[in-house]
């Protein structure tokens, strides 16, 4: 996984302005995901075949006047940005709405230990996880003092009392609760 500062640096590579030097230097020697001289023509021909009226990708890259970046200075490594680059990380966030009463009561019952929200996202489904991994998660959750709110599409038997499954959860509202101690 790449750090935000590396991604920002790579973004500068396709921006029309010369990139400012990384500050501080890039934290890891990960390879670049930028297109090289061989990949760029191949990508262009593929895009042109499906979108014949689209200008060349390089022209689009060089014609941008504003770049909205999904990052925020408070949680990324400081890097210089160009005037045309605006960090808008968390722009989609809003104040938490009330949760359903049963969920609100369950979270409140966690007391000072709080709740950990565990979700593998919408692409990785917990029910397709190999059984030994599922069991490892259950055993790890059993040892925690926090209550575990696990977004899981299915049913599991033998869950400890501190684990609650749900196939869908209002993520922003759960994360907006002070009792939510951590999330993944």
UniProtKB/TrEMBL annotation:
InterPro entries named among the record's database cross-references: UDP-glycosyltransferase, UDP_glucos_trans
Pfam families (alphabetical): UDPGT
Biased composition (Basic and acidic residues): 7-16
Keywords: Glycosyltransferase, Transferase
GO molecular function, one term: UDP-glycosyltransferase activity
Top-level taxonomic group: Eukaryota
Compositional bias segments (type: Pro residues): 17-30
Keyword Ligase appears in the UniProt entry: no
Ranges where the record places region Disordered: 1-44
PANTHER family, per the entry: EG:EG0003.4 PROTEIN-RELATED (PTHR48043:SF159)
Family statement: Belongs to the UDP-glycosyltransferase family.
Name this polypeptide is given: UDP-glucuronosyltransferase
Source organism per UniProt: Portunus trituberculatus (Swimming crab)
Encoding gene per record: ugt3_0
